[in-house]
Amino acid sequence: MNTLLQKIIRSGVGRFRYIVAMLGMGTAVFFILLAVQTHTNFNELLHGKRNENEAADFLVINKQVTSQTLGKKELSTFSPAEIDSLKKQAFAREVGVLNASNFSVSVESYTDALPFYSDAFFESVPDAFIDLKGKENWGWQPGQRDLPVIIPSFFLDLYNTGMAMTQAGLPQLSLDAVMAIPIKVSIRGNGRSQDFVGHVAGTTDRLNSILIPQGFMDWANANYGYRSAQQPARIVLKTLDPSNPALVKYLDDRNWNTNSDKTRLSKVRTIVNWIVGIVGGIGLVMLLFGLMVFSLFIQVTLASCRPDVELLQTLGASPAQLQRFLMRQFMPVNAAIVAVMLVVVVVLQLVLHYTLQRAGMFVPLYISWVTLLAAAATVTVFWVSNRRTIVRFIRS
Amino acid sequence: MPNSLTNRSGTTYPAMNIALHNLVPLPLSDKLGTGPSDVWATNVVFATGQWVKLRAPSGTGKTTLIHCIWQLRSDYTGAVHFDGQDVRSLSATTLSAYRQQRLSVVFQDLRLFGQLTARENIELKRVMSARPLYEPAAIDDMAARLGVSHVLDQQAATCSYGEQQRIAIIRALMQPFEWLLMDEPFSHLDADNARKAAALIAEECTKRQAGLLLTDLDHDDHFTYTRQLNL
Predict the structure, then answer these.
(1) Does A77 reside within a domain?
(2) What does the pLDDT look like over B27-53, one tens digit per residue?
(3) For residue A334, how far is the Cα from the chain centroid?
């Protein structure tokens, strides 16, 4: 019967209009699938394990000191409520506080070859936030005279490129040399004082401070602290994605600062998100137009064979028979369009994979299941739209 | 007369009656009443298995009546009932089931698909039902009996009117039915061909224990009518 129906219902629409309708729909489907796949690829580039240099990033956060907060140190500290709120954010993996020393510190050289004396301060963080190679040497027990210290790597750079170059008689120092130099560390407070032999255990890019083991900080604050424990002025945030716009907005809203320039990527990411969104939006609008064009195409085709369809109904063809047949006339074309565009996106993904691989970046070789889902959804939309047009035609 | 019929798919139907209740087509409402009618504006029941002849001169509504029963038009007062149910209340699906299984028709204007061959026109009706009543060979047999074998593979539009009329008759006989409606089915056939066509129709109706309702201008003796009415 289908062969006969096919012979009766020949498309009364020109080949050109047919091809234009197909091209319009094909482009729309392509844009939609491309937008979905691009979104997935971008997420992979940002969050994928194979694109990470480190498992996570660490941001040191402090409150901005402004003319309004001058003289009110408590305004520069973080309350437990603020720290809890930060911990609850989706972007926060871990939050630690930088405990500041609550006693006076001075450091001086044991040797005249490298004479120096300076007042100083210490901070400490939980060990989980320390990125020291040979972490087993990091720690302190009561009674231990030896005190490991971590300094920011830029201290050493500043010394070597600034101080040593411009001051006569000062040698440049390698990290190994610095680590070998003992430093006299004196702490004072509560009318008492004690000396320790400090040594640089390593440098850090992660935390912009002079760090001592948490154990020493707790012990010294308890024994030499001027006052009861104060709230922290700096906190350290472990996050997988420092460019997350939500994180940047969270900090900006509260006027909190971070020293990391990693958050700058956020702008790029926001822009890319917009572009992907616009591509997807264009795809959706085009799909809408494509559906309208195809729906009109079906209507014109059906209108051109209306007398034949009416005669078929007169002879006893049931609405279900006609509907099944007409769906079979149009649906395979739509499904083929989606399939072809899916193949195009698959090929593009392969090309992208190998191109980015050469640049040291990773996107999956195959398209994502979300893209497949989008393709299936598009076919469903076609099906619903076609069915609606055909049912309305048969009822009329 | 049978009280029930079983089709090929095994479904048993109660024998089908066609009833007209005070039927008056709106275009004819002015003309009616000028003369007596056995059909218009009265109650008439065509019981299963009856062979009914409706005789009327031109312009008195023969085709209109066939179209009202076939539910091609609904511009009338009164009602047409199949088995007590108003045909205007039937869904499109139910109506198509009637047209595939219980009613068949030969229109006066034949209504063939001109772009299909004669054979394809008949075949279309044969396979419209999921379980065809006859094998394809039946088309050749009937065509041979009516003398149209030579045009079976010719486009219907290019056949003569007489040939088309015989094709339309064969098409109507390709399906199961309890009633066969025919609107001047032999108008373009010579006496010999009309006799052959009537013999085939009578045979097929008898086989199905089906009724037939035939409209024509004049008296004829093509069938052994059980009832003759004037429009």
Answers:
(1) no
(2) 888 777 667 789 988 999 999 899 999
(3) 36
Both structure tokens of A12: 């009364």
**Cβ-Cβ contacts under 8 Å, A314 against chain B:** 70, 72, 99, 111
Same domain, A229 and A281: no
Please, which residues have CB within 8 angstroms of residue B51's CB and are 6 or more apart in sequence?
B205, B211, B212, B214, B223, B224, B225, B226, B227
pLDDT of res. A221: 86
Report the distance separating Cα B42 and Cα B77, nearest Å: 11
Whether residue A319 and residue B120 make contact (CB cut-off 8 A), yes or no, is no
Domain count, chain A: 2
Q: Are residues A285 and A358 in the same domain?
A: yes
Final residue of a structural domain among A217, A233, A249: A233
Residue finishing a domain among A185, A214, A233: A233
Q: How far apart are CA A294 and CA A330, in angstroms?
A: 9
The CA distance from B196 to B143, in Å, is 11
Residue B100 distance to chain A (closest CA, Å): 5
Residue in B93, B97, B99 nearest the CB of A315: B99
Question: Which residues from B are below 8 Å from A320, CB to CB?
Answer: 93
A66 CB neighbour count, 10 Å cutoff: 10
Answer yes or no: do A278 and A220 share one domain.
no
> Per the CB < 8 Å rule, is B116 touching A7?
yes
Supply the pLDDT for residue B1: 43
Contact by Cβ (8 Å): B110, B121 = no
- Residue A366 in any domain: the answer is yes
Of A1, A8, A395, Cβ closest to residue B128: A1
Check residue A264 and give its pLDDT: 67
A46 and A105 in a single domain? The answer is no
φ, ψ dihedrals at B229, nearest 5°: -125, 155
- B195-212 pLDDT, tens digit per residue, is 999 999 999 999 999 999
The β-bridge partners of A97 are: A235
The pair of structure tokens assigned to A46 is 């940002």
Q: How many CB pairs under 8 A join A and B?
A: 50
Domain extent for A161: 99-233
Comparing C-alpha atoms, which of B161, B91, B143, B152 is closest to residue B121?
B152
Q: Minimal CA–CA distance to B105: which of B193, B211, B179, B200? A: B179
Give the pLDDT score at B177: 95
- For the sheet containing B18-25, what is the strand order? B43-46, B18-25, B76-82, B85-86
DSSP assignment of B48-90: TT-EEEEE--TTSSHHHHHHHHTTS---EEEEEEETTEEGGG-
The tens digit of pLDDT for each residue in A207-224 reads: 778 899 988 888 888 888
| Range with top average pLDDT, A251-265, B17-31, B97-111 | B97-111
Strand order in the sheet with A117-120: A117-120, A104-109, A183-189, A192-204, A146-152
Does the beta-carbon distance from A316 to B120 stay under 8 Å?
no
Euclidean distance between CA atoms B67 and A257, whole angstroms: 86
- Structure confidence by residue, pLDDT tens digits, B70-122: 999 999 999 999 988 999 999 999 999 999 999 999 999 999 999 899 999 99
The partner residue sitting opposite B113, judged by closest CB among A311, A318, A395, is: A311
Asked if A226 and A108 sit in the same domain, the reply is yes
- Closest-CA residue to A109 (of A93, A120, A124): A120
